[in-house]
């Protein structure tokens, strides 16, 4: 659920306009300034009542925030209606907030849409740090996402990759000259994996009592993943003006409650079917089986945690792998370098998770993709519940905090030519192993992403196997198609590629 960010409206204002406003207001931080910094971060000039909302219209707030960072520095404040928000745009300040100052900034600040969709934080990713969060994170790590949990599902992950490669081979055989839709193949197998892990079964259909009919696997995916992703970025203007909550917003409420109701009905039907299986004595290795055996959760909590396992496995891993294959198809010389590394390390063996520690360039490809195409451009907002300091500035209690990972990863003080996708930047000796996580795509500190190990296992093995078996080439004209869906990094247009099996006549000609 870390990718469901919705408490800031979409945006995009020109940095030049911001700079001009700042200059007139005397707020631009002078270079080589000798006197002490102000007690609080600089404020981006805005308008009365609405603050900076008018500057955040183009649905790319992470890009706007990065432009403002060039004017106001890595930490500044904005006003979103009645709220004061501190925006962090550097890795150093973000890590200070997530680790050193965590006790003061550990509370989630959710939009109205997310509050409804997460049943008021009833999930690992969105719950506030406390007894419930510690308990359910322990559950998901023990049963599914930790080292031992990953071992239990390794065969399932291998089956997923084998199935994708079989589909690719079949599509190429049917029509070698047609570009294939990468996302469609990857999405289907990733959803299969998430269902098996969460429920113990690859569900093809289910009867939903509230709908009065059987729905297909595609309809299950639509209700539990796609509709939820789109609904999570719905903006309720009342989030920015709490004192006007008494005014109805019927269209928003109808959209969110309808989407939430459909998700709940489908998940309830899926869980009830598996409960019947368990009652028949058919125990399986799954997250649901584990949670039911623990017997510590309410029905609502159980439903939400199982749904979280479904949507998280089917979301950010897809985004990262699709972008990695786009970049490798776009840069044949980097693809060749990866293929040669695979040949040197694995020989004639099929790449497995055991090979990953020795595939140095593959790891660089993965982490550079996380940097350049961060699956979560904005970390879900937090609430400063007690006065603290960040980067030497006073941050009052009651302030909201947004970490702009996109801004951190595009920061020219931290990264040379940040706009370029260059896996080699991790191979020049400047980065220790720990620095491979410098992009903070998985967060940091006690709120680090529980699914980081699984994401690396799935994405890295998939990338390596894809390159091991095929040469990848972009569909003509797609080299610059990098648009994303609103404030996510989800590629607007699915990746279409030409695949040539390694060793074929075409490859050797």
From TrEMBL:
One of its GO terms (biological process) is ent-kaurene oxidation to kaurenoic acid. It comes from Eleusine coracana subsp. coracana. The keyword Nucleotide-binding does not apply. Its main location: membrane. GO terms for cellular component: chloroplast outer membrane; endoplasmic reticulum. Its cofactor is heme. It holds the Pfam family p450. Belongs to the cytochrome P450 family. It is found in: Membrane. GO terms for molecular function: ent-kaurene oxidase activity; heme binding; iron ion binding; oxidoreductase activity, acting on paired donors, with incorporation or reduction of molecular oxygen, NAD(P)H as one donor, and incorporation of one atom of oxygen. It is a single-pass membrane protein. Heme binds at residue 449. This is Ent-kaurene oxidase. Keywords: Heme, Iron, Membrane, Metal-binding, Monooxygenase, Oxidoreductase, Transmembrane, Transmembrane helix.
């Amino acid at each position: 659920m870390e990718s469901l960010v919705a408490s800031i409206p979409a945006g995009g204002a020109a940095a030049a306009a911001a700079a001009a406003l700042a200059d007139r207001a005397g707020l631009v931080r002078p270079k080589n300034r000798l006197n002490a910094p102000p007690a609080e971060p600089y404020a981006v000039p805005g308008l009365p009542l609405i603050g900076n909302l008018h500057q955040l219209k183009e649905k790319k707030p992470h890009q706007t925030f990065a432009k403002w960072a060039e004017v106001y520095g890595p930490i500044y404040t904005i006003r979103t209606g009645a709220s004061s928000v501190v925006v962090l745009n550097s890795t150093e300040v973000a890590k200070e907030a997530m680790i050193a100052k965590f006790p003061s900034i550990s509370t989630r600040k959710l939009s109205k849409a997310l509050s409804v969709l997460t049943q008021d934080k009833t999930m690992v990713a969105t719950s506030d740090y406390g007894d419930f969060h510690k308990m359910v994170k322990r559950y998901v790590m023990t049963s599914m996402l930790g080292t031992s949990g990953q071992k239990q599902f390794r065969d399932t992950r291998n089956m997923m990759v084998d199935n994708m490669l079989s589909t690719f081979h079949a599509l190429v055989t049917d029509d070698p000259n047609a570009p294939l839709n990468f996302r469609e193949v990857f999405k289907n197998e990733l959803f299969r994996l998430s269902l098996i892990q969460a429920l113990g079964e690859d569900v093809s259909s289910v009867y939903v009592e509230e709908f009065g009919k059987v729905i297909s696997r595609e309809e299950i995916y639509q209700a539990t993943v796609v509709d939820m992703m789109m609904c999570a970025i719905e903006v309720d203007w009342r989030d920015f003006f709490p004192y006007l909550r008494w005014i109805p917003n019927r269209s928003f409420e109808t959209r969110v409650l309808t989407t939430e109701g459909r998700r709940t009905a489908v998940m309830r039907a899926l869980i009830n079917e598996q409960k019947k299986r368990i009652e028949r004595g058919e125990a399986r290795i799954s997250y649901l089986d584990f949670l039911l055996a623990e017997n510590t959760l309410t029905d609502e909590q159980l439903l939400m945690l199982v749904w979280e396992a479904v949507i998280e496995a089917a979301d950010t891993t897809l985004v990262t792998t699709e972008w990695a294959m786009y970049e490798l198809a776009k840069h044949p010389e980097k693809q060749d370098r990866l293929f040669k590394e695979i040949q040197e390390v694995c020989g004639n063996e099929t790449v497995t998770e055991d090979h990953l520690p020795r595939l140095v360039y593959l790891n660089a490809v993965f982490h550079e993709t996380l940097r350049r195409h961060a699956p979560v451009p904005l970390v879900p907002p937090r609430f400063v519940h007690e006065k603290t300091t960040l980067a030497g500035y006073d941050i009052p209690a009651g302030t909201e905090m947004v970490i702009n990972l996109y801004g951190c990863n595009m920061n020219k003080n931290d990264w040379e030519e940040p706009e370029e996708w260059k896996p080699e930047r991790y191979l020049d000796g400047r980065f220790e192993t720990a620095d491979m996580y410098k992009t903070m795509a998985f967060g940091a500190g006690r709120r680090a992403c529980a699914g980081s190990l699984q994401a690396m296992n799935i994405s890295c093995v998939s990338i390596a196997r894809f390159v091991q078996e095929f040469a990848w080439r972009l569909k003509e004209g797609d080299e610059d198609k990098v648009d994303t869906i609103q404030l996510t990094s989800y590629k607007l247009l699915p990746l279409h590629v030409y695949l040539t099996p390694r060793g074929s006549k075409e490859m050797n000609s």
